[in-house]
Amino acid sequence: MSTPTVTPARQKRVADALKLFRIAAWVTGVWLLVLTGRLILDYGFKMDLPQWAFYIGQVHGLFYVLYLAATVNLGTKARWEPTKWILTALAGTIPFLSFWAEHVRTKEVKAAFQLP
Fold it and tell me: Topology relative to the membrane, per the entry (predicted)?
């Protein structure tokens, strides 16, 4: 992969996209953990959950879509190869993996674009 040209304007665009991605990754990861707990209680322990617990999956789904949008936004601005996009997008579907992906991608992008 070629090293992208780092102009101050591009650096700012990437920094803004990275901030959005980091927030989306954490929110998605937290809601995925909540969803996992709900599923364990419901299917693993056969607990009767309140009606509102049904919506946990839908809220996670909404945040996952925002995570995908943030991934596309950052990947476009950082000029990621397709494999990196796909692996980063899938990280929002496995508990704890979005936190790891956020850490790794943040480190890579900060190094590539000389971000603080």
Answer: Multi-pass membrane protein
